[in-house]
Amino acid sequence: MLYAVVEWNYILSDLAKGPNVWSTNFPTCGGTRNSPINLLSAGPGFVRTRAVPWVLNNWNGDNSWKVKDEHYTVKFSLESGQAMSTSGGGLGTVYDIVQFHFHWGADNSIGSEHLLNGRSFPMEIHFVHKNSRYATIGDAVASGASDALAAIGFFFQIQAQDNPQLNAIINAVQVVRQDSDFEVSGVKVRVTDFVTSAFKSSYYRYFGGLTTPGCQEIVLWTVFTEPIGISARQMQILRTQANMSFGVNFFRAVQPLGSRLVQLFETQPARRNRVCQDLTALSLDLAACLFLNDPSMLTSVCCIFQSELFYYKSLRLKVNNTIYACATESSTNQVLRVDNSNNINNMT
Ligand SMILES: [Zn+2]
User: Fold this and answer.
1) Cα(280) to centroid of ligand 1, in Å?
2) Which of these, 134, 164, 195, 234, could form a disulfide with 139 (CB 3.0-4.6 Å)?
3) Which residues constitute the domain of residue 324?
4) Per-residue pLDDT tens for 92-124?
5) What is the pLDDT of residue 6?
């Protein structure tokens, strides 16, 4: 069997081809909109919004896939004559599925590419789509457009029992991992068998890149928050391959967020602090929202900023026995303090 010639790898100690020299050998790997990233519940650059329904065309079909051992991953490519597409979810247009593949690590403590509040998962699956305005994935990549591709990622987490919904995938992996570059065709996988539950969870969205060289910054990313279950035994089948010379950790480290915004589409928006976290993300000058993390508060939505006043239905806060109220119908910077005798004073 001929091994594919590769110009990069995941071996940190390899200073000719490893991740430490990717940006030397492939300059875009040192770009400002690379992937993966650490996904946070809140913080600069993170904006919360309400989830948008997904439109999944033929995800529930019993589709045929060509499955290939690619050393660093196992790739399932949708066979010709099949069509699966994804829209809705805030994507903005229709994206056609081309393939899915996995990233994992040497043990269950590492392996995912994205992190969720700094946490690693043992594996992450990526569904790679091309924007439907391009005829082929080659055309999409060549366009260089920031939305040329869409990738949808799900985390996996270890559960005690095998996940029978992964059987079709695990069985195919076991076959192709017998030899490097081994591939089989006509493998039937119905994707909704294992993604349906996670698809109902909140998800992140940002503009990023391919996580392998050349790291082209052409990917609209979606990463779901709810992981898919997998047993340690099933994980081990993915890790075991004929040629172990390619290393054991097949994921890229997180990259700087830079000046990008990340949207968290929430299926069940948290009531508390929601407004404040939105606005904190936009780097406005905070005043009264600082109170909102105080557990003694009665209500949670009263935010005064440098140039605008935001308020929700509840307009009174109680912090350390002092009641604060936002002035209603006001366009000025005001925090009104309601003292113990119920007098209202302008604090600003
Ligand atoms: Zn990937």
Assistant:
1) 31
2) 134
3) 271-346
4) 999 999 999 999 999 999 999 999 999 999 999
5) 65
How many CB atoms are closer than 10 A to CB 49?
Answer: 13
pLDDT lower than 70: segments of the chain? 1-6, 269-348
What is the pLDDT at residue 181?
Answer: 86
Q: Which residues, 6+ apart, have CB-to-CB distance to 218 below 8 Å?
A: 140, 141, 143, 144, 145, 146, 147, 148, 149, 209, 210
Distance, CA 173 to ligand 1 centroid (Å)? Answer: 16
Q: Are residues 184 and 58 in the same domain?
A: yes
Question: Last residue of a domain, which of 220, 241, 265?
Answer: 265
Question: Tell me: the pLDDT tens digits for 44-86?
Answer: 888 888 899 999 999 999 999 999 999 899 999 999 999 999 9
CA of 278 to the centre of ligand 1 (A): 29
The predicted pLDDT at position 244 comes to 78
250: CA distance to ligand 1 center in Å? 9
Looking at the structure, tell me whether residues 281 and 322 fall in a common domain: yes
Residue 252 CA, ligand 1 centroid: distance in Å: 9
**Checking DSSP bridges between strand 336-338 and strand 322-325, what pairing results, if any?**
antiparallel
pTM: 0.78
Burial of 15 (0-12, 13-18, 19+ CB in 10 A): exposed
In a domain, 9, yes or no: no
Task: Give the residue from 237, 265, 293 where a domain finishes.
Answer: 265
Q: Are 78 and 99 in contact (CB under 8 A)?
A: yes
CA of 112 relative to ligand 1 center, distance in Å: 10
180 φ, ψ (degrees, to nearest 5): -65, 140
Element (H, E) at 236: helix 232-239
Q: What is the C-alpha to C-alpha distance for residues 293 and 277, in angstroms, rounded to an integer? A: 11
What is the C-alpha separation between 143 and 286, in angstroms, rounded? 41
Span from the CA of 263 to the centroid of ligand 1 (angstroms): 20
CATH of residue 69: 3.10.200.10
